[in-house]
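Issue 218. Parser rejects a valid record. Input:
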Amino acid sequence: MSSTQEQLKRTMTARHIMMMALGGAIGAGLFKGSGAAIDLAGPAVVLTYLVGGIILLFVMQGLAELAVNNKQARTFRDLVQPLLGGYAAHFLDWIYWKMWVLNIAAESVVAALFIQYWLPTVPIWVIALTVSAIVTLINLFSVKLFAETEYWLALLKISVIVLFIILGLVILFVSFHGHQAVGFANLTRYGGFFPNGMHGLVAAMLVVIYSYGGTEMIGVTLAEAKNPEKVIPEAARGTLVRIIAFYILPFFIIVSLIPWNQVNGVPESPFVTVFKLIGIPYANHIMNAIILLAIISSMNSGLYASSRVLYTQALDGRVPRLFAKVSKRRVPVYAILACASSLYIGVLTSLFIGSKTFNYLMGSLGYTVLFIWIIIALAHIKSRSPLNKQSNGTRTFPYATWFALLALLAILIGVLATTALIMTVITAIIYAIITVTYFRSKAQLTAESIAPE
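Output the parser choked on:
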């Protein structure tokens, strides 16, 4: 283990980064959280994912532009601090770190739930512990090996979603061997397309934003990307279309095939439910296995992202220097182990509250993704001010970014009004702690600078 500050190795290509962003975003939010979103919005959940996808498009355009115009940046802090100041950079860094450590804890429980589909007598915490150990070991190997593993896992789940879309469309529109084409009757049969009105749409937006969270991970790969000023915009463009397609089409198929008020009443993912309805032998088991790999892939990406944030914090002297040490393979081992500890906190939590762990954590994570996107949008707007005018820009500025910012603020207000109070309070406490640590460290630095020699 090196005791000096070694640089991370630039071994990640555009295909690695694009698949990592997909790996982070196509996980428990899609495969498990989808049931909660459908339960809140009904068939209109398709519209919520469309609106969320448009907002994501504009935010990612801004993030790509910030990366192009700050070629020395290593992570979000370096992109935001010159534009919005120290507090915004500190807040963004730590809520992003918090988002991923909570997310991988939540997904360890979700992975356990999918394994419990086959092993119903084994306690959730035992399975979650096993999965957590596997993900930790994968991240401790070289970055290139990690990136390759993540690439193929992400490719697998994308392939499955494509297969799901094809089979789903066939069942919707084609009659065969006694099967009658389902059509679109389920979209309006049970209370209409908007069964829960605008309240349901707004409430579902928190799940939607959480589900899309992870795409912005490309901002954390800056220090390990080859030619980041070219790779990051390419990865952003390639990721956006795929994520919107991989969410909207599957949700459209699910709410068309299954009455929306029956989706959230089953223990397995809606994807597994649909494959069971198709009647292909063992299809539900195959789908369950692939979804499990998809969630492990998302955990993999999350542990990567959170450890790199901690690593850069250590390099800058904001956390103990121990976390800046890297192995011979250029992997920040101590940062990975520290972040992996959250997996085991998730295991302990599941020991007491079981499968409800995911639902509790998802609410707080939705808030965090909202704030991350708001800060990125604000930084993009500030980067185009007369004092910070940048040379490379998106053609849709400022309209797209302002639309995204105002939409995110409106969603935040709506979510505050519709989300359980306990989730809001827990999130507010976490944010208050992050804020206090910033001003305490700033006051300490000020005191040290004026102290007599």
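Fixed in the parser; the record now loads. The chain has one domain: 14-445.
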